[in-house]
Design a protein that fits this description.
Layout (H helix, E strand, L loop, with lengths): L6 H4 L7 E6 L14 E3 L8 H15 L14 E6 L14 H13 L4 E4 L12 H8 L1
Parallel strand pairs: 1-3, 1-4, 2-3
Amino acid sequence: PYSLVDRTALGFGDPRACIAVLDGAVDLSHPCFDGAALSTVSVGTATAGAALDHGTAVASLVFGQPGTPVTGLAPACRGLVIPVFSESVAGGDPVCGQLDLARAILSAVEHGAHVVNISGGQLVPAGDPDPCLAKALET
């Protein structure tokens, strides 16, 4: 039978570890981030709407502080928020090209990320990543 694991037995992460979240912008004023060690490196330009909502939701699942509306999986870890989405030209969903994603991954590593969470994807006709993205993923 399935049983829930006591979150306190797993711990809350380690402040020596840095997790990068590559997603939309994050509303750092959200109460779940009170006390979180977060910094931002800008890559994308989408700072509102669906990109902001999704970025905030994903970051809260990782960095939400205990005793706030959302307790994340690693609230004691240092966080690096890297918004990667830009507004779409046609007014549709925010977009992130493969080269921008490659730059964001390299930036995360340069800023000390040990773990990189990427919330996005892009279908391409050939199915192969851009060589720059493939190289960034190898780092």
